[in-house]
Every structure is written in structure tokens, then in C-alpha cells.
TrEMBL record:
Polar residues bias (residue ranges): 402-415
Listed transmembrane segments: 427-447
GO cellular component, one term: side of membrane
Residue ranges, annotated region (Disordered): 367-415
Keywords: Glycoprotein, GPI-anchor, Lipoprotein, Membrane, Signal, Transferase, Transmembrane, Transmembrane helix
Family: Belongs to the glycosyl hydrolase 72 family.
GO molecular function: 1,3-beta-glucanosyltransferase activity
Locations listed in the record: Cell membrane
Protein name: 1,3-beta-glucanosyltransferase
EC number per UniProt: 2.4.1.-
Region forming the signal peptide: 1-16
UniProt-listed Pfam families: Glyco_hydro_72
Amino acid sequence: MKTGAIAAVLAATAAATPAAVEKRASIQPVTIKGNAFFAGDKRFYIRGVDYQPGGASDPKDPIADTAGCKRDIEKFKSLGINTVRVYTIDNTANHDECMNALAAAGIYLALDINTPLYSINRANPQPSYNHEYLQSIFATVEQFAKYDNTLLFFSANEVINDDATTNCAPYVKAVTRDIKSYINARGLRKIPVGYSAADVESNRYEMAAYMNCGDDAVRSDFFAFNDYSWCDPSTFQKSGWDQKVEKFKDYSIPIFLSEYGCNKGVREFNEVASIYGPDMSAVYSGGLVYEYSQEESDYGLVKLENGKVTEMADFTTLKNALAKTPAPSGDGGYKSSGKASECPAKSSTWNVTISANQLPAYPSKAQDYLKNGSGKGPGLKGSGSQNSGPASTELAGESDGAVTSGSANAPTQSKGAAASLRPDFSFAPFVCGAIVLVSSLLGGALVL
């Protein structure tokens, strides 16, 4: 090739590079200190919305929809939020452009790592906790750990929804343990991992304590719950939120509302003033309003039709409420240190049959992921993992197999009992307790 031709090729390549490779927007990763989130040295309060266009009936990946994402970011900016929660992700898709656009707008992502086909099956939990399931959620973790605006991972959502299903809690904790182990073994950024709970009055505090008890390797990094008990017109006292704040005042990890915004009447969003004011700022780290787009459940802030966005009355109400109550200055009175909770004792409202210092053992076929990575994820159209494991499970000490540093140790396993839980994206009936009982009566490996 002649010199002039070479120069022309080099010039064309140089000219094309800036357009082909978009510079990643700068945003401060969020970390945890005591019972609060921090962006650098500044206290970080979650001020956001739940973002899942299509809802549970039509699960899609909004972060892979670049046009829709950029369209909605303009509304997020208008609302004045800093976080969106997404319930469904396609881990085969590219998310660079939307995540970069979110970062440029100062917006973080709170991500549920389960999908309809790759989740713990509440109706048949034993086979659904397996290496194929972990491969899918680990692939999601690996993909999103590279983004500085990935705020946190939800290991599960609303698994425990009454007293009878509390014996499913060990599986929630095992999945949390496994994600933390994968992050440590792979040397990824320490993105917080925790649970989004249903607000069940009879076992609300037991569930919170259970996710925060035991060794650091198995404890949640945060605890969140979906709370619709403030229904306007109401107050901090009338809603009972004052009692919850009092009960959680010594909780040692961040707590926030992963869903809020009761729609039984006209929503005034008066709870915003309490969440980000002196009523709650020392204990809670904000919350996420349910939900951005209007779906069948009628909680929407906007309508999405034919690619266009129409603001609803609740959009303006929430926008005004957030504008009237900025995030507190200073540290908000957070607790800089604290201790793990005491594991709850078995009772009429807490029916965990596995010993407090044991959890379902890490699947042996998943050991290679800790050393060599998960590989490419199966996405939303894979064959599914809910029947890929054995019908019975094994137990290990709560930290056996949990990786607390860069090593990838194999778990120690022993025969034992198991619990179960529902897929954390659906609203199907929960039959966990019945399955454990039937399995025992049929002579399976399960022990009550």
C-alpha cells in the first residue's frame, strides 16, 4: 500500500474512533458505611422509582431498549430522582449505552438478578436451586459489575409473604451468600447485595434480623421492604411508620423502601417529607416509588403509548413532593457502626426448620464459576433452570463455601433439610410449607 493510502486509512480510523467508542460517563460508585449508603464522603439517599415497562405480565429489559431508556431518562431528570429499580434483565443484551446515559444523568440502577426462567421456583424449590440457575445470575452480576452506577443487587423479592412461608428464608440467604461469594472470588467491585421483603406484620422484624445475623459472608449488605401502609390522607404516626423507625433504630445495615406509594385513594406522596426528613433519615436510606409506567395494577406515574410518554397526575404530585424535600444535608444522623442482629428463634410466626448456623450448601457443579467465571448468560429465552437440580438438597455451615477473599474454596457439604421459595418476579400462590411437609411424608431427604 502506498504511503498516501496508509495515511488516509489511519486518518479515517482516527476520525471514526470517537464516534464508535462513546466515553463512559463519570459517576461516583456508592459504598456502605454503618447503616447508610455513601457516594464518596457524602451520604446517599435513594430517591427513585421502580422501572419495568410491561409489568410482570410482559417482562422485558428496559435497559436494553436504548431509545426507550433515553426517552425515559428525560422524565427521570424532570422528577429529580437518582435511582431506578429494574426487575428483569436480559443478560445476553448489551447495556452500555443506556447505563452510560443513566450515569450521565446522575442515575443509579438497583437491579433484581432473577428472571422468569431462571429463578427459585416457589412451587418446586429443591430442583430450582442449582448450578444452571447460579450461572444465569452470576452472568448478570459479572455484566453489571463493570458499571459504576450499578448501585445494588436484589437477590430476591417478596419471598416470605406470610407465617407459613418463613421456612423458605434459608434459600433467600443462600442466594445472597452465593452472589457475595462470586463477587469476592472474581475480584469484582463490591456492589451491595440484599433482599427486598414483603411487609408482613407478623414476621417483619424476624426476616430483617435473619438476613442480618451470622457471619459477614452470609449477611445481607442491606435490607429493603415493599411498604404500602401509608395511604393518603395519613401521617407518620397514623401510618405506623413511626413504630417501624423506632424498631429499626439499632439495625446495623442500610434499610430502605424498595417499593412504596399506596394507591387506595388519591396519592399525595406526603410520606416523602418523612422519608427524607428528620422523622426517618437516621434510620432509612430513602425509597423507590412504585411505579414509573402505568400497568394493570394502576400505580403508574406516566402512560407509555406508541413510544410516547404522557405524564399523569401522580407524576406532578411526586415531582413537587421531592422538590419540597431535598435530601438532608450532612450525614442525617446515621450510625457509623453496629453489630449483627440476633437470629430469630422458632415461633408461631417464624417457622425456619434449618438451624440458624446452617444454609443450603453451594451446588458442587457451580464451583468452577468461582474460579473461571460464569460465562455468557442464557438471557430471557433460555431453556430455564427450574428443574435442573436434584429433588433434595444438602446443608452446610452458613459460611462453608462462602468466599470471603479472592480465593474460591469448595463448600463443605452434609446431608440435611431444605426450605423453598417462590420465583421472585411473580405473584403466584406460595406453597412452600406444603411442599416441605409432603416431601417429608413421602420419605424424601427433607427433614422437618
